[in-house]
Write a structure and sequence with these properties.
Number of strands: 18
Distance between the termini: 52 Å
Shape: globular
Mean pLDDT: 94
Helix content: 25-40%
Oligomer: single chain
Strand content: 15-25%
């Protein structure tokens, strides 16, 4: 057993109140006890670790296309539809599985060094995504996109793509780092027949469905034409998809009626404020979603649509945009934002074992040291450590990271990946795809 003594423990469990002089006990990759040191049970023989500064749950990145690190920066200044059709899909049509594995490996190292211990991924060649993540020691929920487009013919028919994702789930069933779901790209980009088959498989085999919904304003008209007049949430509800675990990415243009449908079915929504801002897609009504009962988490999207895999930046952007929209400096608190990158994000994909430090949870943890200058000065009885962490924290403040109790980052350095070697390989492959 390992015992961690921290100056300040943020568990994101219960009311989330930080615990000065906290203790976490870990055994077989899971937390078995967490709380104040004064109340800790006797653990004779435990390996004791001193954690200077803050110990908190690892971030859960709710929606990402991390292997798109191979395409980072391409298509600058384009709205999403042109960006996809003119820049992304032509290059992605030339991808190989090993391109994706290497891109995921590089991206996983970046995520881990940024304090992200779980990423919900939607990208081609799902088995390669899983291999890259597992090699780096990143926990990953993998859903390869199922898509129908002539530029992506190398991916096979939608039937081929679905068959491969079920096979991928079977191959990774015994690996506790990897969960495999289904990723129909969007209600406007795949056929009704495809969505019906996704629904059948997801419900029968309890696989997460990860799908883009209402990212751009024009999508509503496209979906209504395909569905006989229904909005995207109503269309998915009519197919029975929302009876499965469902994660909808973006949700920028959801109406009140759409939100009521998602809330009634317990759908999760991934809010991607930086990506939506960069592409000019619109401003998601996050608090209206929460009020409708939707489980909302914050996500980075891919490093091609938003260059960084940085949930500190995403939290601050989410708060700023919401406060500008409302004209209220007290709206959308830092505590809410942190919840939406930890326990709240985990709940959005039905993973109550992630995003918190409590008995039974996975021992996915991050240390932020007291030496980080942006976290100072601290004024006793006045400072709120959660607000300070959200407003001033950054990837450079991440000193150590554990996934399932295994240390994967130490002194800010990723232990599982030769970053210099992989960076050179990613650069070579990115140049080939751009030709």
């Amino acid at each position: 057993m390992d015992r961690y003594h921290a100056d300040l423990l943020i568990t994101m469990s219960g009311d989330g109140t930080p615990i000065p002089a906290g203790v976490v006990d870990v055994e077989a990759g899971r937390v078995v006890w967490a709380g104040a040191a004064s109340e800790a049970p006797d653990r004779a023989g435990a390996s004791v670790h001193r954690i200077d500064g803050i110990l908190m749950p690892g971030f859960v990145n709710l929606h990402a296309h991390t292997p798109m690190i191979l395409l980072r920066g391409a298509g600058e200044g384009l709205p999403v539809d042109r960006w996809l059709h003119e820049v992304m899909w032509p290059r992605e049509g030339r991808l190989t599985p090993d391109d994706v594995r290497v891109g995921m490996l590089m991206g996983a190292a970046e995520l881990l060094s940024n304090g992200v211990t779980t990423s919900s991924e939607m990208y081609f060649f799902g088995d390669a995504v899983a291999r890259g993540a597992a090699e780096a020691g990143l926990r990953c929920v993998v859903a390869a996109p199922v898509i129908e487009d002539a530029q992506l013919g190398l991916m096979g028919t939608w039937q081929d793509q679905l068959e491969e994702m079920v096979a991928t789930r079977d191959r990774w069933a015994s690996n506790e780092l990897i969960e495999v779901g289904l990723g129909p790209h969007a209600p406007w980009s795949v056929s009704r027949e495809c969505l019906e088959e996704v629904t059948r498989i997801a419900r029968e085999q309890d696989m997460l469905v990860h799908i883009h919904v209402a990212e751009q304003e024009w999508e509503d008209a496209a979906v209504r034409e395909l569905s006989g007049g229904l909005s995207a949430p109503a269309y998915l509800e009519s197919l029975g998809m929302l009876e499965a675990r469902t994660l909808a990415a973006h949700g920028v243009w959801l109406s009140d009626e759409d939100m009521e449908i998602f809330g009634r079915h317990g759908v999760g929504v991934a809010h991607c404020p930086c990506s939506n801002s960069k592409h000019g897609s619109g401003l998601a009504r996050v608090h209206a979603m929460i009020g409708a009962g939707i489980k909302v988490g914050i996500a980075t999207d891919g490093p091609a649509s938003h260059h960084r895999l940085d949930l500190f930046e995403e939290m601050r952007t989410a708060i700023r945009l919401a406060r500008i929209d409302r004209g209220d400096a007290a709206f959308f608190s830092p505590h809410e934002a942190l919840h939406m990158t930890t326990a709240g994000a985990a709940d959005a994909i039905g993973r109550s074992d992630l995003g918190r430090i409590e008995p039974g949870s996975r021992a996915d943890m991050v240390q932020l040291p007291p030496s980080e200058s942006a976290l100072h000065p601290v004024v006793p009885d006045e400072d709120d450590p959660v607000s300070r962490l959200v407003w001033s924290g950054s990837p450079r403040a991440v000193r150590s990271v554990w996934v399932g109790g295994e240390q994967v980052v130490a002194e800010g350095r990723v232990l599982t990946v030769d970053v210099g070697e992989v960076r050179a390989e990613v650069t070579e492959r990115a140049r080939r795809l751009a030709e």
